[in-house]
Batch of 2 targets.
Target 1
Amino acid sequence: MNIKQKIETLREELSQHNYNYYILDNATISDYDFDIKLKELQALEDAHPEFFDANSPTQRVGGTITKNFKTTVHDSRMYSLDNSYSKEDLLDWETRIKKMVDGEVNYTCELKYDGASMNLTYENGKLLRAVTRGDGVQGDEVTANIKTINTVPLQLKGDYPERFDIRGEIILPIAGFLKMNEERIANDEEPYRNPRNTASGSLKLQDSSEVAKRPLECLLYSIVGSDLNITTQYEGLEKARAWGFKVPQEAKLVHSIDAVLDYINHWDKERHNLPYEIDGVVVKVNNLYQQDELGFTSKAPRWAMAYKFKAEQVSTRLNEITYQVGRTGAITPVANLEPVELAGTTVKRASLHNADQIEKLDIREGDEVFVEKGGEIIPKIIAVDLTKRPLESQPTTYITNCPECETELIRVEGEAKHYCPNYKGCPTQVAGRIQHFISRKAMDIDGLGGETVSLLVKEGLIRNYSDLYELTIEQVIPLERMAEKSAENLVNGIAASKQIPFERVLFALGIRFVGETVAKKLAKHYKSIDALMFASTLDLVTVDEIGERIAESVVEFFSSEENKQIIERLKSFGVQLEISAEKLAGQTEKLKGQTFVVSGVFETISRNELKKLIEDNGGKVASSISSKTSYVVAGDKMGPSKRTKAENLNIAILTEIEFLDFLK
Ligand code: AMP
Ligand code: ZN
């Protein structure tokens, strides 16, 4: 087999595995073996850029940066849908239709997926482009981002038309959404509100590798084009499925409006058992010839009707408003409700967000309130049933002092939340910071859990995370539920965390707005805590992706005498507060501000080593040549199209020797 065949075979094999896994939900290879094959393909493609294919399975990881999304006119307009809310609405619709078409009318019933609509164009079985709905006439081209979604086939199977559009909804399944939020909460970032907004917000992220990290899916519902050889909507769905698209199996062909109503009633109850959110059902006249006869109004097809579910609502009593203190001191008011069944779960609490929210709705303890679980996963209070308000009811006065430490709360101009400023003494904040410090993504301390931390704080054994390193087995054993073995594990776990690299220590410090990614960027740039401590806001904002908000927070953190002392102590215990010497060896800023594209095969160095060398010396590596490329480092067998592109853009091409000399 020659190289080209080998590459093609691997691509086919990998897309088949991808299809089995994501569309059929039936894995036929282990993740490990899949990765090995993908790496093998990547290596071959790297070595043979002349066989580049924009639709190769290797392209799913993303990496393309789009600053401005190109506006693109749809080949055929993307209409919206008329809505109905009752049986009567649907019967009226049926009457209107029957006046306009002859013969029996059948319907395809589909779920109305709640996400962002997308038009995909395929040509010769390959994804040509993906465009958002926009205003229906034109949208934004977001192909690079859409390619990273595993349920979007890059290469179709079977007997597909030469060119066609297919429409679908980009959605974020609930499990994936919750997992993303777990991480955000761990990073002290505001959780996303609901899956729909998060899905649609993902489409226009500038960095496609960020999109690749989100577990998005694409569910298809309609094929558009000419000479497609399809006669009914239902047949269209089946064909799309056969070509490799994800078309939910819940779609159903029925023969009467009564059966449509049965379908609606069924899914109104069952929708909470689906892995993703729906906001209704879409009913479509099945016969495409009849669809043609019915045509469109100025806004929507006459042959389709959305049936919107009512957001589920219940009323219940608000027993008490309590206040939670986060590790940064932010206060969140919480409504404690008389437990009530809503959308398949028992609801006991609802977030009230902040003081303004309470005031706006005039929510009071003792009120009967309406709770809704619409697009939001966390239930919210939408109104008060004033007819049931007790006579003696009094307006809610928001707390003025911290529920944990009694310190007077502050509210910063322009921010919605109140804060407890007692950074040092507020027990919840103190324990919260230590809990963050030991968490899995930070210092990952084995044998120590959140509850033990609270206990240690309560017993006065620790006041901040640097105290952890002085804990002894003897001190820990007397604690509740501690045995000698577990005390030993705890102390050993703490000692082991001294090996955790600087970037994670920096994240563990819990500086506001410094999540994992920011911590990495700062660690890479400043290399040691000493350098970072001396950085001014002005200096900080020059670092890639560091904005003013982060910069100010970093400066504020290090301006505290107490924090400085804590850092000194961490240092004295041997916690990693700089990039280790091995990592540092060979790192310079020589290539700062320059972007390189590496292409071809090299003699004295591997491609990955070359890329690392560029990054270690402060340069950036990009995957494709553009006007922003400073240099192309070309090895043997660089693709001819890349060379032409570099030449056309007047970009200097360096050989491997020239590059290495250049570094010296
Ligand atoms: P609306 O935005 O309320 O006018 O509803 C129209 C939108 O519903 C379309 O743009 C699609 O994005 C979305 N939709 C979700 N599921 C379906 C489906 N099964 N068939 C047609 N449209 C759907
Ligand atoms: Zn407090």
Target 2
Amino acid sequence: MARAQPVIVWFRDDLRLSDHPALHDAASRGAPVVGLYIRDDESRALMPPAVRPLGGATRWWLAQSLRALRKSCDAIGGTLVLRTGPAASVIATLARDINASAVFWNDIAQAPHRAVGRDVEAALATDGIASQIFAGDLLVDPKVIRNKDNRALRVFTPFWRRVQGLGDPPKPLPAPRKLTSVSGIASEAVDDWDLEPTRPDWAGGLRESWTPGEAAAHDRLKTFLDESISGYAGDRDRPDRDGTSRLSPHLRFGEISPRQVWHAARFAAAEHPRLAGDIDKFLSELGWREFCRHLLFDVPDLADRNLQEQFDAFPWKRNALFLKAWQRGLTGYPIVDAGMRELWRSGVMHNRVRMVVASFLVKHLLIDWRSGEEWFWDTLVDADAGSNPANWQWVAGSGADAAPYFRVFNPILQGEKFDPDGAYVRRWVPELARLPNDIIHQPWTATPIELASAGIELGTTYPAPIVDHKKGRERALAAYTKIRRKE
Ligand code: FAD
């Protein structure tokens, strides 16, 4: 009997086996399945807007996630092949070599990914090989939620109401129990892809903080829903507590799908009705991810262009020294410095603190939000093409549904309110650990005796503030007034 022709499943930002529509369909046909991941640094150069090259922290995550995916594929008899090159020619060559009947993949609703996908389809069509594209990256197709001008909604609340109005998304699909594979296909090795830092190896903090991969993503979700969801609506703003899910990098790489998260959360709410408020809040955060992605669908150059054009005339300041002080967590504002050091060490930063440090860069230092966005892109393990620029623009005031520019976060009050005992600062800025709670967010107000007994020499062991809060705030408001006048 003739052997069935294999189907290739092309993995991208969907490094999982469960709720993977392309894999599910391929496996259910009973044909051999060959998983493929492509390191493609070339397609993106061919057409603007380009797929954004990964930053350092996401490259590290990708290496771990691919290893985990390969293990899971092996465990059910499948294969994951790694290749380098432009996706269209890599896929067409492999498809010809193994006599594949078709290539399946999940859509990524982003212009550059779709452009690469179209090239792949065209290359396969010339060889008479079918391609099939599935949805699975978002809760809702961005084409479904439009305003009357056929654009993505720019305000979150009505957007989220519309998403909820559509009811539950489809139930997640199970992972295939078994795959039939094709042996003897050459594959490159993750180790040879140079994704992880060696000299210097700065990834120690990432290894300590994270276990990438699908199994770990589901463990995190379960632990969060079992142990931490109660009180989420309030605790999610507290960087000193373990109050959020920490699912963002897993979602970023598609190790878990948003509809798996949605259904697990809804199930928890049905079992424990007292958690309904916390779960609604949690799902609305997932809604922000969706909102940012829908915006990106309409605005592929979201990381480059102010959504509100009057910001093109904003008098940003170039100040390499201040930018460096911010990146290194040496601004003299404890909550800002704690956040920036948490980011550098662990690859994430608490959401509340992301807002504070972003506001500080853009408003107190008047540095263009794009410089901060780029730094986050390189250092976050959850760096996301939608969420990162959309949130930066939100904080800067240049974006959709943005915080008004005149709302300047006060880093002292933010610290005192959300890290009242200074536990977060003590963890990430240990040189301040011995300061009493009431001055830990403003060490420059400490008396010489207080500083001496905490072992601090201001300006030597810890910096004095690089900008005075009040003056920084006034300068920011003056700069904003200039662009408002030009409107
Ligand atoms: P939880 O509170 O458990 O939320 C659950 C999920 O909802 C998150 O995993 C995430 O997928 C989503 N989510 C939560 N808040 C937001 C938000 N404001 N915008 C979009 N999605 C959200 N998030 C990223 O995933 N990638 C980024 O590159 C990113 N850059 C940011 C930059 C700035 C300046 C700011 C202010 C926020 C940014 N965020 C980004 C959003 C948010 O900070 C993180 O998603 C959150 O801290 C992740 O922690 P968690 O998984 O424990 O969140």
